[in-house]
Write a structure and sequence with these properties.
Chains A, B: Keywords: ATP-binding, Ligase, Nucleotide-binding. The structure is a homodimer. By secondary structure, chain A is α/β, with parallel strands linked by helices. Chain A is built from 26 helices and 29 strands. The longest helix of chain A is centred in the middle third of the chain and has 19 residues.
Chain lengths: 709, 709
């Protein structure tokens, strides 16, 4: 599950081409085949440009060629700007000419229905065989902004050219991508590399992401995603970005049922389950932005500032109100706002007797009379406090000529003294002040809460990058020697995998059951055992709280007869006898197969929380114990495991180890196991045995099952 | 609880003065006393301006006066720009001169500690007695932007003057308020009236809100609130705004524990409980903005567009991706995106065979070749669908000269044909296109999700304004004839108030208990009855599931003896015998007193949901049954009441009536009752009796109580 350097290198001729041909080139820059030529000329693209058009000798001042083969020179990348009907002959020409990559604007493929899907499959097969990398079809192309490669036909870039910078932008939607590109320009954000992936016949968003992860000009990657075809490739690309310490911010649409339906109808791609995307993106340290403003807020922050080395936020404000707004937001997003040390507080109160000095430090309107107070407060905070980040609310000082030193001198000095500190200044800014601060790697925001959110996002990246990815060693796959599992089989399978399970026994007669019960200790539970009965409770196949041998014998007869009556053809092997566990916290541990991401582990508490509040969390398998701990703490009902109403906290370490073990088992047996449902897993305090009490395992070959409900 | 017109009229001389004096006026426009004079002159304020300064004859070209009394003409409003030490003599001068209102910039009052509080109290007492309305002290003043009244000393307005418009802005924080005012200017938002309320010795945010509610130039009111001293006045002002159909958007800080602490230290005001603020603001139809951008996004929408008449949203997009993003957001914020009627879908597919035609309507990149497609799609949607609002994602057409008709002609025509339709166009815009659309009452947004959120907010206002406020008639207060209530008293009190309670009996002997149990029907529960025992379970004072007379007799002895042993001095009156109810859904109904808003009713489900997830909701008492229904549906666990796992839904009507009855009882007895805790209230399906099973009532005079836990 990794993208090899050679795979990435293969995209070099596409995204950083030394020569570009334009098939369907036009002399008219308003046309789809004219625009890229004009853009390349205007951008002074330094490589060779070869217009291809059999009807013209010169195009926009350049020599034109009838075919790609006629060029007679290496062609790294060909832009294909011909109608769908002309695509196959263009691609054949490209293969014959040794073209290494194609950007295909042409529409009329998978987005148009069954015929288009067939045409696209043919196209894909052809380029694979010819070792040509293909972007598109039905895409708006890409921009390599530092190399002057405008391989796009959108006319929008004539209105305003994207600024140069270190932000990579990748969109599965063309119109949306160009809109975002233009919005970035308006916001003053500099772009290194923009890609619209269109129908993704060959190159997917994940490929572009991996390329940007290794692109020295890109330091943060923003994505617009509707759905990934290849979850493994996406995860590998995200891991590559993590290894390069490049934050990834993603706007993934299809969050809701109606949204997912609309996305599916739009892209005809396998939408997958949004909750799983959400979990996997979290697992891989991606910041999931809820809208485009957030995408850019966080992307901007990553592009400018160093990542905070701790979650401690120092807040200074010349308005008490803004200080409150920021500490509210800090608490909400999980940053700490530690009290300033007493000596620091005293130092501030000495200067401004009516200040709030605890952090947030509010130096009040007194700043208007004595501007130096701000710098003194900041110095005092940095002397007496340890912060990963500082945020300073400075009202309108950023557009006030008389307060310019509060923006420039102050923060340039702080930056010089504290290179790793994340600094955000909140104010209105004129362009000059804004640029000054950003050149000093200080963030500028107009919105106090947005500044705090961005700092929290930076800190999350910082934590994620600090994690050493522990290679998770998978066990040998087990031989799934049967199509159907009864409950005893299922529990044995899990026990063999290292999951703690309840010590149950199989009994084939009433006497055997009574004997096993006595050996286990009363009270016990009896469950009818049959691979043919899916829902034991529904057929009267379960007896709870059996207190003595007599009760066990009677129950054996009752539940086997009842089950046999209800499912006459069932092969009833006997019953499972198990101790009746009545304490502990009921959890649900599950494994399902996601069409995009493969085996996925679910965790939640039993009862109403899962059913009504959907208070569950997911992870792609496999994962390590540390990830399992994070997973457990994600559910809203987490405090229940920590002990409420005087209950002792459960043994979270065992729970986390169990989840990690389950994830390794699921990953190792992804080929043979469809799903696992451990419900309940009883989590108990340390020193008492936590265990799976009931389990349902479904193999991929058959849906034979055993369960209890 | 209403603000009389005369109370409001009393603020006319302040906020819309015919004459203004400036006490402490200066010839130097950089000074606190010079700035207002310069502003008034520059703004060509049409009324009289009287600089007051004993040391100068003329100030900034105007005749100056030694004192206010020397002016010899009516003075509607005096700006007080002198240090705290000079305030009292200035105010005495104002009273003598018949000044009707004062704006006091001077700091050095309650914000500086105990001495300052005393000085401010003296100031308040003096102006009350002199019938002078006072804004401040320690405030940045106000701006009446249509009358040219810049009664402020902030130098920021020299950098950029607020645009004129219909948005009122009120801030308890001066620096924050000016920042917001300047930010509004940057966003192109027009302001009618800006107020900074400072220390609120007399005029509170609620007074300014009420004035703007009646101000014809203001049509939407944005507030920054840290805390209200007078909850009743705030609610009355909000009700006044509702009656005038003026949306109120509020940024209330102190959401979190640390934020509330910071707010309290900042304003020294009683912070109150943020959860209660949240509930009351919702109850009064206020949109609570989480940050300043949201404050302005929603405020902007209210200032431009008509409110949607239904929750049905039509989405048209030239990018499928943006369509998905918008439908995601619509579902999240509770707007419906109804399928387009089949005939409409067919009409669209006839034009664009590969469009998504269901709603969102995605007319695809085909728009680039055939711009008229957008207008056709919009016309088709409006012909075949019924929408309260339409949102159109148009990528970069708003800055594209060739696509200007898609912005202007199209929407001008739609507006003319559909005057009440809420329209939002999402694109990048040049100034001309933006203004054109806004003049046609169409919203412009750069962010698709923000547009949908704004439409949802407008729809919430629309629903709120459509509600006929039902006057809630309060019952007569009950005579609280005792300081302490035992459980039997508490249940009787609630039963008399009209709350359904369990049919319990008091028994003073084991035989009596057995007799009552037989009369009620087994199984029963016994609870020791004593006004001296707060927590019956803790002292072994409760026996559950008693199945026969023998068990009841034994339990009587056991629990009374156990309680007597545990609380030797307790007067034990006997026991309460009640049927053991084992079905239904356990709810918690409570009443507490909020320091700001008075009696408040709480609702939630019993068990872990309240304890761990804090899944409860509040309302200020009293409220009607419709409000109670909204309240019940607000908790996350609401589906439990609707019936899960095959359970019948509970009788929500009875639950809502009970909450409304409880709220009336709480309001009528606010003077005598401190708190009520009905835990549990068992909600059962229609036809079965829902009832309070246990109750705790605490009077205000004493904290005698009875409960069960």
């Amino acid at each position: 599950m990794s993208l090899s350097p050679s795979q990435q290198a293969a995209l070099g001729p596409l995204f950083n081409p030394q020569s570009i041909a334009v098939v369907g080139a036009s002399s008219n820059p308003a046309k789809i085949g004219g625009l890229p030529v004009e853009y390349l000329l205007n951008q002074r693209y330094p490589g060779a440009i070869y217009p291809v058009n059999p009807k013209q000798e010169r195009i926009q001042g350049l020599q034109a060629y009838p075919t790609l083969r006629d060029i007679g020179a290496p062609i790294d990348m060909a832009i294909c700007a011909v109608p769908a009907s002309g695509v196959m002959s263009a691609v054949e020409d490209a293969a014959a000419a040794g073209v290494r990559s194609i950007v295909m604007f042409s529409s009329g493929f998978a987005e148009t229905g069954a015929d288009g899907v067939r045409a696209q499959n043919d196209l894909r097969a052809f380029v694979k065989e010819s070792a040509i990398r293909l972007l598109g079809p039905n895409c708006l192309g890409f921009v390599n902004n530092h190399q002057g490669v405008y391989a796009t036909f959108t006319p929008a870039l004539k209105i305003a050219a994207p600024l140069r910078g270190n932000i990579g932008l990748i969109s599965q939607s063309g119109a949306f991508g160009i809109f975002a590109l233009m919005l970035a320009q308006r916001r003053g954000l500099g772009i290194s590399h923009f890609v619209s992936t269109g129908n993704e016949a060959d190159i997917e968003l994940a490929d572009a992401l991996a390329w940007q992860a290794l692109d020295p000009a890109t330091s943060v990657i923003l994505c617009y995603l509707e759905g990934a075809r290849d979850g493994e490739k996406l995860c590998a690309a995200l891991e590559l970005a993590r290894a390069q310490r490049k934050p990834v911010v993603m706007c993934k649409v299809g969050r809701t049922a109606q949204g997912a339906a609309a996305a599916a109808s739009h892209t005809a791609s396998l939408a997958g389950c949004d909750k799983i995307y959400d979990a996997v993106l979290r697992q891989y340290g991606v910041y999931r932005a809820q809208d485009i403003h957030e995408l850019f807020d966080i992307g901007y922050a990553c592009s400018v500032a160093p990542l905070p080395v701790s979650d401690a936020l120092g807040i200074v404000s010349i308005s008490g109100g803004a200080g409150v707004l920021m500490v509210d937001e800090a608490e909400r997003v999980g940053l700490s706002v530690p009290l300033l040390a007493e000596a620091g507080q005293q130092a501030i109160l000495k200067r401004v007797p009516f200040a709030s000095a605890v952090n947030p430090v509010d130096i009040t309107g007194q700043i208007l009379n004595e501007p130096a107070l701000l710098a003194d407060a900041v110095d005092t905070m940095l002397e007496h406090g340890q912060y990963g980040a500082m945020v300073s609310f400075q009202a309108v000082t950023g557009i006030s000529p008389q307060h310019r030193p509060l923006v420039t001198e102050l923060w340039a000095r702080v930056r010089a003294a504290h290179p790793p500190l994340t600094i955000a200044v909140v104010s209105l800014f004129d362009e000059q002040n804004r640029k000054f601060l950003e050149q000093h790697r200080c963030l500028t925001f107009e919105e106090p809460a947005a500044a705090v959110r961005a700092i929290a996002a930076l800190h999350a990246f910082s934590r994620h990058f600090a994690r050493q990815p522990v290679p998770v060693a998978l066990p040998e796959p087990v031989a799934i020697d049967r199509a159907r599992f009864d409950e005893a089989d299922a529990l044995r399978l899990l026990a063999d995998a290292g999951i703690p399970v309840v010590s149950s026994r199989v009994a084939r007669s009433a006497d055997e059951a009574a004997g096993e019960a006595a050996a286990l200790g009363f009270p016990v539970v009896l469950k009818v055992l049959s691979a043919d009965i899916a829902h034991k409770s529904d057929v009267g196949g379960v007896a709870l709280r059996l207190a003595d041998s007599q009760a066990v014998r009677a129950a054996f007869v009752r539940i086997t007869e009842s089950a046999a009556r209800a499912v006459p053809n069932a092969h009833i092997e006997g019953v499972l006898v198990a101790p009746m566990i009545q304490d502990g916290v009921e959890c649900i541990l599950g494994v399902t197969r996601d069409p995009v991401f493969g085996p996925v582990v679910m965790f939640g508490l039993g009862g109403i929380l899962v059913e009504v509040l959907k208070d569950v969390t997911f992870r792609q398998a496999p994962f390590d114990v540390a990830e399992a701990h994070r997973m457990i703490r994600e559910i809203r009902a987490w405090p229940v495991l920590g002990g409420v109403r005087g209950q002792a906290p459960v043994d979270v370490d065992t729970l986390a180890e169990t989840l990690a073990t389950l994830s390794r088992f699921a990953a190792a047996n992804a080929g043979s196991i469809e799903s696992i449902d451990i419900n309940p897993f009883i989590a108990r305090p340390k020193g008492q045995a936590s265990c799976a009490v009931d389990a349902l395992v479904v193999s991929r070959t058959s849906r034979a099952l055993t369960d209890e409900d």
